[in-house]
Amino acid sequence: MNEAASISIAEKHEKWMAEHGRSYKDELEKDMRFKIFKQNLEYIDKVNNNNNSNEGINRTYKLGTNQFSDLTNAEFRASYAGNSMAITSQHSSLKYQNLTPTACWAFSAVAAVEGITQISSGNLIRLSEQQLLDCSSNGNSGCVEGKSDIAFKYIIKNQGIATEADYPYHQVQGSCGRKHATAAKISSYEVLPSGDEQALLKAVSMQPVSINIEGTGPDFKNYKGGIFNGVCGTQLDHAVTIIGFGTTEDGTKYWLIKNSWGDTWGEAGYMRIQRDEGLCGIGTQAAYPIT
Protein backbone atom coordinates (compact mmCIF):
# COMPACT_ATOMS: atom_id res chain seq x y z
CA MET A 1 0.00 0.00 0.00
CA ASN A 2 1.40 3.39 -0.95
CA GLU A 3 1.82 6.20 1.54
CA ALA A 4 -1.21 8.18 0.31
CA ALA A 5 -3.47 5.15 0.60
CA SER A 6 -2.20 4.33 4.08
CA ILE A 7 -3.09 7.72 5.53
CA SER A 8 -6.45 7.67 7.27
CA ILE A 9 -9.03 10.37 6.63
CA ALA A 10 -8.57 11.55 10.21
CA GLU A 11 -4.85 11.97 9.57
CA LYS A 12 -5.59 13.80 6.33
CA HIS A 13 -7.87 16.14 8.24
CA GLU A 14 -5.19 16.84 10.85
CA LYS A 15 -2.64 17.52 8.11
CA TRP A 16 -5.11 19.76 6.29
CA MET A 17 -5.81 21.70 9.52
CA ALA A 18 -2.10 22.32 9.99
CA GLU A 19 -1.61 23.41 6.38
CA HIS A 20 -4.49 25.89 6.51
CA GLY A 21 -4.07 27.07 10.11
CA ARG A 22 -7.51 25.80 11.03
CA SER A 23 -8.59 25.36 14.64
CA TYR A 24 -11.96 24.69 16.24
CA LYS A 25 -13.48 25.94 19.47
CA ASP A 26 -14.13 22.46 20.88
CA GLU A 27 -14.21 18.75 20.04
CA LEU A 28 -17.87 18.94 19.07
CA GLU A 29 -17.15 21.45 16.34
CA LYS A 30 -14.05 19.53 15.29
CA ASP A 31 -16.08 16.34 14.91
CA MET A 32 -18.72 18.15 12.86
CA ARG A 33 -16.07 19.69 10.58
CA PHE A 34 -14.29 16.36 10.23
CA LYS A 35 -17.50 14.77 8.94
CA ILE A 36 -17.91 17.57 6.39
CA PHE A 37 -14.25 17.23 5.38
CA LYS A 38 -14.77 13.50 4.90
CA GLN A 39 -17.84 14.09 2.71
CA ASN A 40 -15.93 16.61 0.59
CA LEU A 41 -12.97 14.25 0.25
CA GLU A 42 -15.26 11.41 -0.84
CA TYR A 43 -16.86 13.68 -3.45
CA ILE A 44 -13.44 14.75 -4.74
CA ASP A 45 -12.32 11.13 -5.08
CA LYS A 46 -15.58 10.18 -6.77
CA VAL A 47 -15.29 12.91 -9.40
CA ASN A 48 -11.60 12.31 -9.98
CA ASN A 49 -12.33 8.63 -10.57
CA ASN A 50 -15.06 9.58 -13.10
CA ASN A 51 -17.74 7.93 -11.02
CA ASN A 52 -19.85 11.07 -10.67
CA SER A 53 -23.55 10.59 -11.35
CA ASN A 54 -23.51 13.27 -14.07
CA GLU A 55 -23.26 11.40 -17.37
CA GLY A 56 -21.66 12.39 -20.63
CA ILE A 57 -18.81 14.52 -19.28
CA ASN A 58 -15.27 13.77 -20.39
CA ARG A 59 -13.65 15.67 -17.55
CA THR A 60 -10.43 17.44 -18.35
CA TYR A 61 -9.87 18.72 -14.81
CA LYS A 62 -9.19 17.41 -11.32
CA LEU A 63 -10.53 18.34 -7.92
CA GLY A 64 -8.60 18.63 -4.67
CA THR A 65 -8.74 19.88 -1.12
CA ASN A 66 -8.29 23.57 -0.37
CA GLN A 67 -9.23 26.11 2.29
CA PHE A 68 -12.94 25.36 1.76
CA SER A 69 -12.73 21.63 2.47
CA ASP A 70 -14.44 21.73 5.87
CA LEU A 71 -17.40 23.77 4.57
CA THR A 72 -20.63 22.32 3.25
CA ASN A 73 -21.65 23.43 -0.22
CA ALA A 74 -24.48 25.43 1.36
CA GLU A 75 -22.07 27.22 3.72
CA PHE A 76 -19.73 27.96 0.84
CA ARG A 77 -22.52 29.44 -1.28
CA ALA A 78 -23.83 31.50 1.64
CA SER A 79 -20.38 32.99 2.25
CA TYR A 80 -19.10 33.40 -1.29
CA ALA A 81 -22.19 34.00 -3.44
CA GLY A 82 -23.91 37.32 -3.95
CA ASN A 83 -20.91 38.99 -5.57
CA SER A 84 -22.99 40.58 -8.26
CA MET A 85 -21.25 42.80 -10.76
CA ALA A 86 -24.34 43.07 -12.94
CA ILE A 87 -24.07 45.85 -15.48
CA THR A 88 -26.22 48.82 -14.47
CA SER A 89 -25.14 51.32 -17.12
CA GLN A 90 -25.15 51.50 -20.89
CA HIS A 91 -21.81 53.35 -20.77
CA SER A 92 -19.86 51.89 -23.19
CA SER A 93 -0.27 40.20 -13.38
CA LEU A 94 -2.50 40.39 -10.46
CA LYS A 95 -2.23 39.82 -6.78
CA TYR A 96 -3.35 37.29 -4.23
CA GLN A 97 -5.39 38.25 -1.21
CA ASN A 98 -7.13 36.29 1.53
CA LEU A 99 -10.55 37.35 0.36
CA THR A 100 -13.22 38.36 2.79
CA PRO A 101 -16.40 36.59 1.61
CA THR A 102 -18.38 38.46 -1.03
CA ALA A 103 -15.80 41.16 -1.73
CA CYS A 104 -14.53 39.58 -4.94
CA TRP A 105 -16.13 42.28 -7.12
CA ALA A 106 -13.61 44.77 -5.69
CA PHE A 107 -10.68 42.47 -6.44
CA SER A 108 -11.97 41.82 -9.95
CA ALA A 109 -12.41 45.53 -10.72
CA VAL A 110 -9.07 46.52 -9.22
CA ALA A 111 -7.27 43.72 -11.08
CA ALA A 112 -8.63 45.04 -14.37
CA VAL A 113 -7.48 48.57 -13.53
CA GLU A 114 -4.05 47.29 -12.46
CA GLY A 115 -3.76 45.45 -15.74
CA ILE A 116 -4.57 48.35 -18.04
CA THR A 117 -2.40 50.67 -15.91
CA GLN A 118 0.57 48.35 -16.35
CA ILE A 119 -0.06 48.07 -20.08
CA SER A 120 -0.32 51.84 -20.55
CA SER A 121 2.47 52.91 -18.19
CA GLY A 122 4.78 49.93 -18.01
CA ASN A 123 4.48 49.88 -14.22
CA LEU A 124 2.66 47.31 -12.10
CA ILE A 125 1.06 49.29 -9.29
CA ARG A 126 -0.79 47.47 -6.53
CA LEU A 127 -4.07 49.32 -6.06
CA SER A 128 -6.53 49.48 -3.19
CA GLU A 129 -9.51 47.14 -3.03
CA GLN A 130 -10.28 48.57 0.42
CA GLN A 131 -10.95 51.99 -1.08
CA LEU A 132 -13.66 50.48 -3.27
CA LEU A 133 -15.17 48.62 -0.31
CA ASP A 134 -15.25 51.77 1.81
CA CYS A 135 -16.05 54.45 -0.75
CA SER A 136 -17.77 52.97 -3.81
CA SER A 137 -21.15 53.19 -2.12
CA ASN A 138 -23.50 54.28 -4.91
CA GLY A 139 -25.14 50.90 -5.47
CA ASN A 140 -22.31 48.88 -3.96
CA SER A 141 -22.60 47.36 -0.52
CA GLY A 142 -19.06 46.88 0.69
CA CYS A 143 -18.36 43.26 1.51
CA VAL A 144 -21.97 42.24 0.90
CA GLU A 145 -22.01 42.62 -2.86
CA GLY A 146 -20.88 45.01 -5.53
CA LYS A 147 -20.79 45.82 -9.20
CA SER A 148 -17.72 46.37 -11.33
CA ASP A 149 -19.21 49.15 -13.44
CA ILE A 150 -20.11 51.09 -10.30
CA ALA A 151 -16.55 50.55 -9.07
CA PHE A 152 -15.23 51.95 -12.36
CA LYS A 153 -17.62 54.92 -12.06
CA TYR A 154 -16.28 55.65 -8.58
CA ILE A 155 -12.66 55.61 -9.78
CA ILE A 156 -13.55 58.01 -12.61
CA LYS A 157 -15.47 60.37 -10.31
CA ASN A 158 -12.73 60.23 -7.66
CA GLN A 159 -10.16 60.99 -10.36
CA GLY A 160 -8.24 57.86 -9.52
CA ILE A 161 -7.56 55.19 -6.92
CA ALA A 162 -4.92 54.88 -4.22
CA THR A 163 -2.19 52.28 -3.86
CA GLU A 164 -2.70 49.28 -1.64
CA ALA A 165 0.22 50.47 0.49
CA ASP A 166 -1.48 53.82 1.11
CA TYR A 167 -4.95 52.33 1.65
CA PRO A 168 -4.37 48.70 2.77
CA TYR A 169 -6.88 45.89 2.84
CA HIS A 170 -8.53 45.25 6.23
CA GLN A 171 -10.96 42.44 5.29
CA VAL A 172 -13.96 44.42 6.57
CA GLN A 173 -15.79 47.46 5.24
CA GLY A 174 -14.83 50.71 6.93
CA SER A 175 -15.74 54.35 6.56
CA CYS A 176 -14.57 56.36 3.59
CA GLY A 177 -11.98 58.49 5.35
CA ARG A 178 -9.40 61.03 4.38
CA LYS A 179 -8.48 61.86 0.81
CA HIS A 180 -5.74 59.56 -0.44
CA ALA A 181 -3.28 60.33 -3.20
CA THR A 182 -4.28 58.65 -6.45
CA ALA A 183 -1.86 56.29 -8.16
CA ALA A 184 -3.88 55.27 -11.22
CA LYS A 185 -6.71 56.79 -13.21
CA ILE A 186 -9.22 55.65 -15.81
CA SER A 187 -11.25 57.85 -18.13
CA SER A 188 -14.12 55.49 -18.92
CA TYR A 189 -15.07 51.84 -19.24
CA GLU A 190 -16.64 49.55 -21.80
CA VAL A 191 -19.39 46.98 -21.30
CA LEU A 192 -19.13 44.03 -23.69
CA PRO A 193 -22.16 42.59 -25.52
CA SER A 194 -23.75 39.88 -23.40
CA GLY A 195 -22.88 36.36 -24.47
CA ASP A 196 -20.41 37.40 -27.17
CA GLU A 197 -17.24 35.40 -26.50
CA GLN A 198 -15.64 36.68 -29.69
CA ALA A 199 -15.95 40.25 -28.42
CA LEU A 200 -14.59 39.02 -25.10
CA LEU A 201 -11.65 37.36 -26.86
CA LYS A 202 -10.83 40.58 -28.69
CA ALA A 203 -10.92 42.53 -25.42
CA VAL A 204 -8.82 40.02 -23.46
CA SER A 205 -6.20 40.05 -26.21
CA MET A 206 -5.68 43.70 -25.28
CA GLN A 207 -6.13 43.76 -21.49
CA PRO A 208 -7.62 41.98 -18.42
CA VAL A 209 -11.42 41.98 -18.29
CA SER A 210 -13.65 41.89 -15.20
CA ILE A 211 -16.41 39.29 -15.54
CA ASN A 212 -19.20 37.67 -13.58
CA ILE A 213 -19.69 33.90 -13.54
CA GLU A 214 -21.37 31.16 -11.57
CA GLY A 215 -18.59 30.20 -9.22
CA THR A 216 -20.13 28.43 -6.25
CA GLY A 217 -20.85 24.93 -7.55
CA PRO A 218 -19.08 21.97 -5.88
CA ASP A 219 -16.68 21.32 -8.76
CA PHE A 220 -15.75 25.00 -9.00
CA LYS A 221 -15.29 25.11 -5.23
CA ASN A 222 -12.97 22.08 -5.25
CA TYR A 223 -11.17 22.78 -8.57
CA LYS A 224 -7.49 21.84 -8.44
CA GLY A 225 -6.23 21.90 -12.02
CA GLY A 226 -6.73 21.15 -15.70
CA ILE A 227 -9.22 22.61 -18.16
CA PHE A 228 -12.50 23.02 -16.27
CA ASN A 229 -15.44 21.72 -18.30
CA GLY A 230 -17.71 20.51 -15.51
CA VAL A 231 -21.33 21.03 -14.63
CA CYS A 232 -21.83 24.75 -14.16
CA GLY A 233 -24.89 26.96 -14.45
CA THR A 234 -25.41 30.60 -15.32
CA GLN A 235 -26.54 32.00 -11.97
CA LEU A 236 -23.94 34.75 -11.86
CA ASP A 237 -22.70 34.92 -8.28
CA HIS A 238 -18.95 35.47 -8.40
CA ALA A 239 -16.55 37.98 -9.97
CA VAL A 240 -13.15 37.09 -11.42
CA THR A 241 -10.74 38.55 -13.95
CA ILE A 242 -9.91 37.00 -17.30
CA ILE A 243 -6.21 37.66 -17.90
CA GLY A 244 -5.54 35.48 -20.93
CA PHE A 245 -6.50 32.57 -23.14
CA GLY A 246 -4.88 29.64 -24.89
CA THR A 247 -5.24 26.30 -26.64
CA THR A 248 -3.90 22.96 -25.43
CA GLU A 249 -1.93 20.58 -27.65
CA ASP A 250 -5.10 18.58 -28.30
CA GLY A 251 -6.94 21.70 -29.48
CA THR A 252 -8.98 22.49 -26.37
CA LYS A 253 -9.57 26.24 -26.10
CA TYR A 254 -9.58 27.83 -22.66
CA TRP A 255 -9.76 31.09 -20.77
CA LEU A 256 -7.22 31.84 -18.03
CA ILE A 257 -8.90 33.47 -15.05
CA LYS A 258 -7.45 34.92 -11.88
CA ASN A 259 -9.54 34.23 -8.81
CA SER A 260 -9.30 35.94 -5.43
CA TRP A 261 -9.41 32.89 -3.17
CA GLY A 262 -5.68 32.48 -2.62
CA ASP A 263 -3.03 30.24 -4.10
CA THR A 264 -4.24 27.04 -2.41
CA TRP A 265 -7.28 27.09 -4.72
CA GLY A 266 -6.94 25.89 -8.29
CA GLU A 267 -3.68 26.26 -10.17
CA ALA A 268 -1.96 28.56 -7.66
CA GLY A 269 -5.04 30.80 -7.60
CA TYR A 270 -5.83 30.54 -11.30
CA MET A 271 -8.25 28.46 -13.36
CA ARG A 272 -8.27 27.37 -16.97
CA ILE A 273 -11.86 27.05 -18.11
CA GLN A 274 -13.15 25.84 -21.47
CA ARG A 275 -13.63 28.63 -23.99
CA ASP A 276 -16.39 29.24 -26.58
CA GLU A 277 -18.95 27.25 -24.58
CA GLY A 278 -20.44 30.00 -22.42
CA LEU A 279 -19.48 27.80 -19.47
CA CYS A 280 -20.48 29.17 -16.06
CA GLY A 281 -22.05 32.16 -17.81
CA ILE A 282 -18.71 33.49 -19.10
CA GLY A 283 -19.33 36.41 -21.41
CA THR A 284 -22.76 37.22 -20.00
CA GLN A 285 -21.49 40.18 -18.00
CA ALA A 286 -18.06 41.61 -18.77
CA ALA A 287 -16.53 45.07 -18.58
CA TYR A 288 -13.09 46.64 -18.78
CA PRO A 289 -11.64 50.04 -17.87
CA ILE A 290 -10.16 52.53 -20.32
CA THR A 291 -7.31 54.87 -19.42
UniProtKB/TrEMBL annotation:
GO terms for molecular function: cysteine-type peptidase activity. PROSITE patterns: THIOL_PROTEASE_ASN, THIOL_PROTEASE_HIS. It comes from the Eukaryota. It holds the Pfam family Inhibitor_I29. Transmembrane segments: none annotated. Residues 13-76 form the Cathepsin propeptide inhibitor domain. Keywords: Disulfide bond, Hydrolase, Protease, Thiol protease. Gene3D superfamilies: 1.10.287.2250, Cysteine proteinases (3.90.70.10). GO terms for biological process: proteolysis. InterPro entries: Papain-like_cys_pep_sf, Pept_asp_AS, Pept_his_AS, Peptidase_C1A, Peptidase_C1A_C, Peptidase_C1A_papain-like, Prot_inhib_I29. Residues 72-290 form the Peptidase C1A papain C-terminal domain. Belongs to the peptidase C1 family. This is Fruit bromelain. It comes from Citrus x changshan-huyou. The lineage of its organism: Eukaryota, Viridiplantae, Streptophyta, Embryophyta, Tracheophyta.
